[in-house]
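Section: Multi-chain targets

For targets with more than one molecule, the full set of components is provided together so that the structure can be written out for the assembly as a whole rather than chain by chain. Components appear in the order listed by the source. The example entry contains four components.
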Amino acid sequence: MSVHEGRLATLVRRVEREPREPLEAALGRAVDVPSLAHVEQLETRVLRDGTLATVYLGLARPDVLAGSDRRRAATRSTADKRELVAVAQARLRAKLSYTNLGFALAPEVFTISELRDVYRAALGHDVSATNLQRVLLRRGALERVEGRRAPGRTGGRPASLFRFASQHLEVTDEFAALRPPR
Amino acid sequence: MSVHEGRLATLVRRVEREPREPLEAALGRAVDVPSLAHVEQLETRVLRDGTLATVYLGLARPDVLAGSDRRRAATRSTADKRELVAVAQARLRAKLSYTNLGFALAPEVFTISELRDVYRAALGHDVSATNLQRVLLRRGALERVEGRRAPGRTGGRPASLFRFASQHLEVTDEFAALRPPR
DNA sequence: TCAAAAGTGTTTATAATACACCCATGG
DNA sequence: CCATGGGTGTATTATAAACACTTTTGA
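Its structure, encoded as tokens over all components, is:
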């Protein structure tokens, strides 16, 4: 999945796994894994056609995604695909809340408004730039970058630039509930 | 997994899946699924022997578990098994924090002290009975049951009885972070 | 000098932990 | 009557949402 024009874009790929082939090897034949910012395994299920499928979620940065992949697959979605995409979206939404996973959807450097648009698309609801900035800064997920983005024709204060402190998945918000005593 | 004598007991079972057999069918040949309080799929991975394995976590109540299963499997743990059990334990710990999953480890009716012992065993750290009670009551996960447990020989106030309000997995604690606006 | 966009300061809300203290029982 | 285990009352702390207000720019 990836964010384009303010909405979540999905692309479903399928590969047959050769006998005795590692899962990651088959995955590598379907997509260019090194170009993805994040990959994780989801569920394994028997599809309607009787085949056993292990589903993976991959996240691509908008500035990295190859042109050929930028348009959504035009093929009609099967019931299987729709279900699997829904599972993947749910996982993405959940992890955005308690991890730094935004790094995998945002460009290298961004303004808070741009980041808010990414979160809006992925979460499916409105996000406050003010609070997003403070939550992610407080958690240490974001850091400031030198320079500012010039305002557009309509004016406005130039925006500060930020980047994610880490490019790998980290849990940034331990559960408040039932945490170990000091 | 299950809790016995204040500690987490694990039992690892393995089945071959027949060609075209649904995953749940193979699972049913390995364990008595209806007797388990909760079952969920974990990861799928290639084991050291080259076979593809889809791992499930099952939780059993101490009062339901068959006698033959009460003792831990005496077979020496392989590296694979140790890894898989660790994955399962991590999943269990996480879900205990933000769901009502305790229902699957506790007996039908219990005192808060008994429940605390269960959580202690599963979480691997100390748990305050006071706070456990309040958190689970506040979340609506627990409800009071008529009657009290008589104290032991050493005295003490008789304990109130509780049960879980639901016997099915529910997320009881939405993430405070990035929640949708009203 | 005004509208737009960005950013900060401060208040409010929520939920959990910590801890002091009261309750009920057996010996 | 006191030790033991159970339970409640009440801070304190942590985290984030809400919102008023200030800053910086283009036209």
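Residues 144 and 162 of chain A are 4 Å apart (CA to CA).
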